[in-house]
Design a protein that fits this description.
Beta-lactamase, five-stranded antiparallel β-sheet, five-stranded mixed β-sheet, D-tyrosyl-trna(Tyr) Deacylase, Chain: A, 3 domains, alpha+beta, 13 helices
Length: 485
Amino acid sequence: MSHKITQGLLLLLLFTTHIGFTSPAATAQTTKKTRKTICTSQLTTAVDAVVNRPLFNRVRWGILVKNQDSNQTLYIRNAQKYFVPASNTKLLTTAAALQALEPNFRIRTSVYQDGEGILRVVGRGDPSLKDAQLESLAKQLRQKGIRQIKKLIADDSYSQGDIIHPSWMWEDVQYYYGAPVNSLILNENASILRIYPQTLGKPLKVKWDQPTEAYRWRVENNSVTIAQGESSFVEVTRDLKGPILRINGQLGVGSRPDITAIAVFDPIEHFMRHFRIHLAREGISVARTFTAVGSRNERELAAVESPPLSKLLLETNINSNNLFAEALLRALASKSTQKNQQNVANVGLKILQTTLNQLGVNPQSYQIVDGSGLSRKNLISPEALVQTLQGMAKSPQTEVFRASLPIAGVSGTLRNRMKNTPATGIVRAKTGTLTGVVTLSGYANPPQYDPITFSIMVNQTGQPSSVMRKAVDEIVVMLAQLKSC
């Protein structure tokens, strides 16, 4: 996982997850090797030639390729074995969410009046909530005549259970792609900081995009500004026991700033601090704030809603957003009547399994513990992923689901992969990357053959991710050139 912020995040002010890039050299090499058609009868030999290279002697491969309509198996290797799936887990999460909740489902954030001068803000885990929505809530309250709030209560009770999965790696939970998941999410529970060089010999300067963050963190700055042209690097780490940042490294005089997104330490404090700022801008004073649970929530004074699920899926799969995936897993719990006092993520996992079973996915073919794939305790077979893809291909929601997947050489986490190859524009697939793990599962529509569903999973690689992506892409390009013969 990369610790650095993506360009799309900066442009969209969204804290999106890591996007893997294939080097131009790798793309060019793939292009040179794939200008031909491949008979279905030759596919096994062609794929084996890639998988069995000496470079991959210690690599564990799992591959399943099927004709989408006839269910004919075109290639199979370890398809029923378990693999660590990384972000291919999101295929199961988003398929289940779309089937159980439907495309127009929205997540509501409300402000209720509990008594005279007592307001309660109730979150239900909207991962898309930004400062603009808090501004809207504040304006709505002013329009209702609210000028003073004696007690402002943050109700974070919807998302009960761990806000950080206990099996997530400590290296990940420091950064935006491992941010905590709770009921009152704001700005994806992450904060952006920019680190600038100063004059030669001085420490690097830290600047937060949200200035109030500077008062929440203690910065241990062990960095330095070096001469222009010298080797630069910056490492930013967050203490897991408190709001402490450690900055090490060096940047050359006049060089561009280093930009990082850090997971917030206390998401409720983060939410309420921002909300109070927007209330103050509307002339609404707040005497005290509390965190509490339990209210009948009889009178709703203000509310905002997330975009529809169909839009949330775009961010989840195209940009491989971990927090969005985890929020959707918890949203599944809204279908249960027994979620009170339970770990809402576990309730969501039960709904997920029931929904996938109805879709035709073998419940023995996967074991997952989160919705994003950040945990290495997730185990999924290529069979489970292909069954999910095939089930969604027959679903009334198929077009919405397909639209949420990156397109080879065009969009999301595939925009720089398989460019200028026969796969460009005709392969939609979900990527997945962890250390030692590369996965890709999705759909291909070869011009001279029927639609295909496929899953390629690589574990225990020992090779750089870029090398494994190149090999995976080489196989997918073959699929894009299939014809019957």
